[in-house]
Amino acid sequence: PPHAHYGICCDVMEHIPTADVPTVLRNITDAADNVFFQISTVPDDFCCMIGGPLHLTVEPHAWWHEQLQQFGDVTFERDFGDASVFLVRQE
Predict the structure, then answer these.
(1) Terminal CA-to-CA distance of the chain, rounded, Å?
(2) For residues 34 and 5, is the Cβ–Cβ distance under 8 A?
(3) DSSP for 26-64, written as a single string
């Protein structure tokens, strides 16, 4: 399988069903030594236009930190209120 030193995952994780989050995080962190994540922590604005939510996992910063630390060291993080960023490094 492909492997990289760095990976970027922006505006993706909030679209993953909650039950699938661990599997997706495992796949992403297995593919790169260092991964930057940007994750929305609020509901999407377009759900009423399309008849359902686009953000399937809406959780606060602390919840995402807990999920990510299961797959590496969270070496940087910032909570912007409506989104969070993390840098996860493989041990």
Answers:
(1) 19
(2) yes
(3) HHHHHHEEEEEEEEE-S--S-HHHHTS-S-S----HHHH
| pLDDT per position as a tens digit, 26-62 | 999 999 999 999 999 999 987 767 778 999 999 999 9
Which one-letter amino acid corresponds to residue 51? G
Give the pLDDT confidence of 55-70 residue by residue, as tens digits: 999 999 999 999 999 9
Other CB atoms within 10 A of residue 52 CB: 10
Q: Rounded distance, CA 32 to CA 8, Å?
A: 9
Whole-angstrom distance, CA of residue 14 vs CA of residue 17: 8
DSSP code per residue over 2-29:
--EEEEEEES-GGGS-GGGHHHHHHHHH
Residue pair 71/25 in contact (Cβ under 8 Å)? The answer is yes
Are 55 and 16 within 8 A, CB to CB? no
